[in-house]
Amino acid sequence: MVLPPDRSYVEGEFISVVLNVRPGLSMVQISVNDKAQSVSSKPVNRLTMCYDGIRLSPGMNTIKIAGFEDQKENQTSTVRIFRRSDLAQNANSAPAGFRQYFFHTAKNERDCQACHLMKIALTRENEQTDERSQCAQCHTKILSTYANVHGPAAVWSCLTCHNQPSPDSKLDVKKPIDTACSECHEFSWKNKKYLHAPTASGACTICHDPHASDREYFLRMDRGELCKSCHEDIVPRTHSFFGFFARNDGHPLSFRTDPQNPRRSLSCVSCHNPHGENSDKFLNGYDESAPIMDRFCHNCHFR
Among 6, 157, 207, 212, which one has the highest count of C-beta atoms within 10 angstroms of its own C-beta? Predict the structure, then answer.
């Protein structure tokens, strides 16, 4: 295994694996945590091989590479890669001794430029097709795996966001992240009195995947599960108004239809704005001029 190095940690879901292959091998298999990965079939006739789109789970990942000759396993290599995630309790921080890994460094690109065109101008990239994009060589699975693809990523305009060289990577993103997002997206919550912590810190990508997702708004998880990944204390206790309308078990959190949008299920965002509001509880459409029953609850409940 050439890249990524053992005892590395990354932020993304997919990585590319670079191997030095011993002559005579007929096949290479890659598994992550003992689960086989779907990799493209390639003739093993080069000393260096690249496999993109190796999928990692949050937390520790053991990547095993197995080389086969005449259908017999005769060469293996194993590395441990930690995928850090703000949404998984066991993956908030990397273990001691693990170093953050970036591919797009000067050294890595020099080693790869014999086969790959690595000189990308650090300016806003024009729209391109998969066939023309230099980025598509290694990053196709980031997009092809999901139902919804973010606009710039869909046309391989990667440098719309990845245009901030840093000591770690020449293709970094402006920090905080919302400085990059705000170039295209208008923030309707910027004048609200209270801001949700990820919003206030400019960390849009905690909740939204900037490349692609199977969910609307490019959410990383279903709405309710996304909220509970940080607010797990809400689930086991009675929520909100005790005894409301003769109920004694609190307000439901799910498994109901959203009264304001019958096409959706009830979730945390049915009542709370996930970005910010004028209420310290982020209540949607909060109006300070009326009692709470009139200014909020009556949006769904009528006497």
Answer: 207
41 pLDDT higher than 90? no
Give me the pLDDT at residue 243, please. Answer: 47
Cβ neighbour number for residue 242 with a 10 Å cutoff = 11
* 201 neighbors 152 (Cβ within 8 angstroms): no
pLDDT > 70 in the chain, percent = 88
The chain-wide mean pLDDT, for the chain, equals 85
pLDDT-derived band at 27 (thresholds 50, 70, 90) equals: confident
How many Cβ atoms are within 10 Å of 175's Cβ, its own excluded?
Answer: 12
Structure tokens at 280: 């310290």
The answer to whether 166 and 172 have CB atoms below 8 angstroms apart is: yes
Taking the C-alpha atoms of residue 81 and residue 8, their distance in angstroms, rounded to an integer, is: 5
78 C-beta neighbours (distance < 10 Å), count: 12
CB 258 within 8 A of CB 270: yes
Which domains are present in the chain? 8-101 (2.60.40.10), 102-220 (no CATH), 221-299 (no CATH)
Rounded Cα–Cα distance for residues 47 and 49 (Å): 7
CA torsion through residues 195, 200, 206, 207, sign: positive
